[in-house]
Amino acid sequence: MKFELEQMHDVIRITDYTISQHTMAIFDCNYKGQSSSLILEKNKRLFIKKKPIQLIRESCRHYGLSYTERIRQTKRYFRQTHKLPILLTYTQTKPCIIFPLYSSRTFENAWLNLYAIRNMKADGQYCTVQFENEWIPLPATMNVFKTQYTVANLYARNLELNM
Question: Pfam families in the record, alphabetically (predicted)?
Answer without folding.
Answer: ComK (PF06338)
